[in-house]
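task queued by scheduler; priority normal; single chain, no ligands, no partner chains; default sampling; output format set to structure tokens
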Amino acid sequence: MEQSKSNYRAYVCCGHNCGPKGSVRLLHELEAEVERQHIGDYVSVLPTGCQSHCESGPTMVVYPGPVYYQEVDAQRLERIVAEHFVGDTPVEEYFWRGYGALWKRPAWQSRAALPPQAPPRTTATLSQPHAKKGSRKRPTHEEPDDFKW
């Protein structure tokens, strides 16, 4: 069997909404399937907290990407492992569709396909003219291609 050329990180949501939907069991099933396919050297399987896609959970995000999968179950996991992790082809029909028409192409194909985002906030935009001195909020800095928990 041909091994995957990429190193993947698969994060299974085990948050307060996905957990009761069986995501911990799915995490263990994914770990077992990765071992069955002998791709443990190429795929890391990790639990995460809430991924904020509760309505379509259990969810899983895969890097490099990000590629968000929705309504993950045992059958979908098997196909994701076979096609995405072994075959290097994400399973588009399982992609998270939360943005509807705004998300015309999968994010893994083009960063330009994502909905426009607001420009980064700076301390100048966070302060208000009537705000008390020292009451400014800190700006947030996000990594575009990795979870920071």
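post-processing summary
- The chain has a mean pLDDT of 75.
- Strands lie at 8-13, 43-48, 60-63, 67-69.
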